[in-house]
Specification:
Blueprint: E1 12-14, H1 15-22, H2 26-35, E2 41-43, E3 46-50, H3 51-67
Helix pairs in contact: 1-2
């Protein structure tokens, strides 16, 4: 059983907050989720983006930038 480190930062953020953190619109974030470029989970009817997924997406963008 893993233990999460207590932090003031939430582990899951709403799509709107993920967009704010990435400086992207809510609709663009939903498109990234739909295409699989940004991981998200569904809790009830709400989509949440793991904070780790935001870091992974930024790393993906950095890798893609160095490939071109």
């Amino acid at each position: 059983m893993s233990t999460l480190i207590a932090s003031a930062e939430p582990v899951l953020v709403p799509v709107k907050e993920a967009g704010r953190l990435l400086n992207l619109s809510r609709s663009v974030v939903f498109e990234l989720i739909r295409t699989g470029r940004l991981r998200a989970v569904k809790e009830g009817r709400a989509r949440r983006v793991p904070r780790a997924a935001i870091d992974e997406y930024v790393a993906l963008l950095e890798r893609e930038a160095t490939e071109h």
